## 1
Amino acid sequence: MLREEELKTFVDGTTRYFEVAAQQPATIGSPYLLEGEPAMHDYTGMINISGKREGVVYFTAPRAMLTVLLMKMQESDFSHESMRDLVGEVANTISGNARRDFGHDFVISVPSVFAGEKPQIPQPPGTRAFVIPIHWRSHSAKLVVSLT
Amino acid sequence: MQSSGTDRSRRLLTAAAGALLAALMALVLIIGFRLATRIRDNVATLRRASLLQAYPSELSQQLTALRERLGTLEYTGGVQQELSDSVAGVNRDLTALEHRRGLDPTLLGTAEQLWRAYGPVLAPVLAYAGEPYSDTDFGSSLSVSGKMYYTQVRRAELFAQSHAPALHRQLTALTAALQKRTSNAAARLRLLLSAGVLAVLLLGGAAAYLQLARSRGERAAQAAEEQTRDILHTVREGLFLLDADYRIGSVWSQALNHLFGREDFAGLPFEELLRDKVSPATLATAMKYIKLLWGERAHENLIKSINPLGQLEVTLDNGRGGKETRYLQFNFHRVLGAKGVKHVLCTVADITSNVMLTRELHEAQESAHAQLDMMVGMLQSDPLQVGGFLDAAAAGLKHINAILKEPARSHAEFSKKLAGLARELHAIKGEASALNLMSIAQRVHHLEDMVESLKGKSELDGNDFLPLVLKLDELLAHLRAVREMIGRLGALQAPASAPADTLSSPVLRPVGAEELAATLQNLARKLAEDHGKPFTLSLEGLTEVPAQYLGALKDCLIQMLRNAAVHGIEPDTVRRAGSKSATGQVRAQFQRQADGFELVFEDDGAGLSPEALKQAAVRKQLLTAEQAAELDDRAALALIFKPGFSTRTEVSLDAGRGTGMDLVAKAIYGLGGRIGVSTHPGRFTRFKIALPVPRETAVA
């Protein structure tokens, strides 16, 4: 069963990205358990976890949020590819945080990025996904953690 | 300690042997110097005595030569001068010998005496200054004085010839005595030197032995030091000594470096070791405990039993730039010396894996117990009733998740969620308790605790809700396990009539009046037993309850029954003292009225005290003292329906959260009804609930 420290590691990895990249920290909203189909925004960066724990962690954000984030990062390229790269980077930061805190217990895949299309999210049997809303400025994204 | 004492003794012995050797050498040298000086003097004396030995015969020869020269009329001045020199030489040497210590005075005295006998005969010879010859035309001849002089010389010659042997013998004896004395001194010097050499050899040998022993001791000490180093490098616990200033000593085990990720421990205050790794409160407690260890009167075993660092949760660097939570066990042993506590030996062990294992074991045990309790509870309950509860609980948790899902950014928005969560949880817990599903009730109770603690926070954000949602997930998993168990039990109890998965995935269905009655009676029995207050529950008219109201009324009746048991019914001793029957009475009557329905719920317990209610409201900070004073009795009784109100100061599974009557009132208002309360202190508490006719029923 997921522990609070583990959940916090993923949350901190996400909020830390905003703090470092945009010099403006993100806050988290009220967490809840996912029911039914995962609610995906326009762009999603996902990492698969295996080893001691199995499951997925993904960050999904709307295009508007990513655009503002790119602007804050002094970027001028707001193309589809830039958006994909951005959610990939967030997923990478989450992955780095997890490696730092969990070491070799977790085997973490390279991030995969989805845009537009509805990704196949492998849900480990017998587990529920935790949804943590990520608020930044007036925008909201979601961090979803589903681990055995 | 023992080897250190032996080493000190050995060093002292070596130093003493060295000092003795030096003193002995100095003594030998001093005595040797004095003996050598004496020998040197003796040799000089001996030489003088040897010279003296020659004088008697020399004098005889000189006198003979003088006489012969006088006879041959030759020049005598030279011989006379030699004679004079010899006499002066004897006098000088004898005088010199007189001043030598240690000479045999008899021998010297006799020699002097013999020499003094020469004086009268030699004196005229030596004193003669005339002209011994007279020259004439016939040649030279002795003068008158010369003839006299010749006679005196002849007499002296004869005297010398007769006395010379005696004097010579005497001087020879004196010389021999001197030789003997010199030989003795030389022998003593040889002996002294031999003894000195022997002593030096002996002492040198002793010093060499002691040095050897010391080297052996040093080798042993080196070996011991090496062993200590090996131990400190190998031992898996952190080891170090604390001094009276609570600072770490200069030696510690290698494991300490790994445990704390640092190497600068020498002189480090113990407080600094733990700062930033534990909470300030834990740090303060730890320091108080460390100070206790230095108390002379403190009993070690007693101190050990109150060790606050037996299992310390610390946050440490994980070596990859991150932090991790570890569990450390500190043990302290006082090192006593002659003047009391010298040091405190501290051992630190990383017991994280043990703690995790214990926790897993505990969880497994708890789960096993819970399953057992659950099975017992389910065997005692109607599976359909339990299934109904699980459906209701699942619906309640779904509602809780929906509350959590509502967007929130501000403290107010987060705070608003808490009240809704508390109500839902309380309802689930009440029904779980009624069905004796204690593992569920306790888990919900724990969630309620978390909600309550969040209510006290001045600033709430999403991070505060992470533990809540994790617990919610855990509770859902537990409900799923219970549901599976019910399925298995159901299959065992009715293998022929019901399919195995009927209960594993029950459909939501309305609660029946019989089920409600059975649930309430079960709860009443359990409450009476748990609180040691015997009472009976009489239920009337429950079959009249419209199906639409059964679910909500069940929650209300459960809550009111728990309140009656906890707050209303007195212990039997109190009841007897108040001239009441020992067994309390609780009654619930549901009946149809002209314009709807009425539920009367009453107990013959202690009743409600408006004053006590006001005081509780002030204590719970729901009212100020001034506001409470202005309330009349009716308004005071209405306080029980306020959220967060409770007269209990402690929270238990059955009461104390102040959520119960709030929940009842909200449920009744939700059905479009009204609720009122009347009481008589010491006699009864009565709730009257008026409900409208449900819409469907009215249409029907």
## 2
Amino acid sequence: MKELSALSLQQKTIKALGVNTKDAKISLSYLSVAFATLLIGGILGLVQGLQRAGLLELPPWLNYYQVLTAHGILLLLVFSTTFTIGYQYANLSHSLGGLLPKVRKLAWSGFSLMIIGVILVVTMIVLNEASVLYTFYPPLAAHPIFYVGLVFVVLGILACCFGVFINYRHWRKTHPGQTTPLLAFFAMGVFVLWFFASIGVTIEVLTLIPWSMGIVETTNVMVDRTLFWWFGHTLVNIWYLVATSAWYVIVPKIIGGRHFNEKLIRLVVILLVILNIPGGFHHQIIDPAISESIKFLHVFMSLSIAVPSLMTAFAMFAVFERAGRKKGGKGLLGWITKLPWGDVRFLAPMIAMISFIPGGAGGIVNTSNQMNQVIHNTMWVVGHFHVTVGMSVVMTFFGICYWLIPYLTKRKLTPQMNRLGVIQTIIWTVGMILMAGSQHLVGLLGDPRRTSFTTYGDHPRALSWIPYEYVMGIGASLLLLGVIIQVYAVINMMFFAPKGETTFPVAEPEDNALPAPMWTERWGLWSVLLLMVVAMAYVVPIVDMIVNAPPGSPPIKTW
Amino acid sequence: MHRLEEMWIAISSGILVIFMIIVGYQTFALGMGPPSNKEIIDPQKVDQTAPFDEPGITKIGENEYEVVMTLQTFGFNPNNIEIPAGAEVHFIMTSKDVTHGFQIAGTNINAMVMPGHIQRISHTFDKPGEYLVLCNEYCGTGHQLMSTTIVVK
């Protein structure tokens, strides 16, 4: 009891003092890497968009696929990962009353490991030794150092996973009978999922290292591909879970409302964690070597995460309506006008959430057997993940910056900066609608993804795609402008904004809310259920791919 | 939980079930399942293994053809195929090197063709015209050049 009150006293001091400086340094370091990466990745995105439309010729020392590999790895892997860790560790530090010293050490080790890894990977891409795109499907073989770099990145992620687990366990032990704060619960969901997601790609990369060095002669390309998507698609949903943590817990506070029923929120997190990994299989719907009946099971398993997503849609709109009505919104839709549309901390995540409606619908198309065959590996897919990742996730991340960074640096969000943020949000939204919209349309007409500018010998069908590619180029230009404004805003809020107090916006439950049920904290059980779902999806096809494997493939360099 | 929440969850799950019934019906009753062939081959001995030792087009029935095709950076063999309108064509494909994608723009033909695996997909070409066949999985520096045509007369 004594320990408890001492701890709560400690927590109160932290709350009174605001941010823990040592923890803030961790988050700020991760965020700095994130936005430096965003700038480089964004520039590469525009280069690629213009090349694709035939508007820009690359110099002979640079090829399109090199640029594409770097764009994918820097944004999908490095930007999203470093932002997530910076933000989630801030959440953890805030809601658990500071990080433990050993957790801080783990976060710093993770940081160093990731930096080493990224330098190795990027060097190989720049040297044109790894133009294998971010999926690095064997038997395309990159330089062994590329894979070694990836191992370092994964080790960095794992260090951060263990940091979260240790801090969570410590808090639970010192707070018997209490449920963890909601943001810490989300962090557990994110890192538990990340831990299990990493297993697939770790096994893959570890087998590819000796293969690319020539120690092992051949590799099983189907197994590698399956293990990649075990990780690759789960990663997408990790970002999505990170974004939903802000939707459920932060956004309600910003609009002056309360968060939704905590039991439902926790249930959504648990379902997203348990059901997620088999979703990777829908990237392989038109692959050989997996039977139709197994694919049918995968369609069901991939689609099952639509249920928690629809629950999120319900909960969020309920929160908005309640907050809007409390502020005097009348009639069926009057509450919409009462929402703070001029506040970037609301506007950016709100557009992110709205874009999840077409994003999710597109995802259902991609996940289902026959429709997948229409759009697989066409520009549609590129449009799809620019809506889901580039809008739903990234705009939420951008919105988070406008309170998180001033909070961490003990500065203030000025009205000017807010206005710039609103402009940035509008530019980004228009850019994405133009780019992703035309990608969706031209994809339906058959334009393939991951292909540099080509007219296929002036084939009329290929020529008909070019106008859409111009629109993509215009969208990409607006997006780079958006990136530049965002990076400027981040630098300003890190170093130049006026000093002041920024609060960490965490929503409270409704007054009559029931306490969160204790059973939701059973992470051991959720992990077992996750593994059971993984076993259901993976054991039969992977055993089949290994037992009935063809002779393997040697490493091949085709660039 | 609130009554409206329960209804919403019930409706969401219900939609999922209906969706799966439709997808299942199309896949198993109408034979519209995705290409999922399970035959295997030694990817380093494609040229010596039947039927890929003789890639080409064979007439196997009344306006029905079989195309045995190998894919390799950066081309299709055979290429520039010609068939009469209304022909049903069965493609049997494998890769001699890396992973390729076989797509015929403007049709629903889309399949991954991977080394070590034999992929099969069929299509009836009702409309005459020059169809663009392309590789839709990145396969190397010349990936954007990897294309051919199917002329339907």
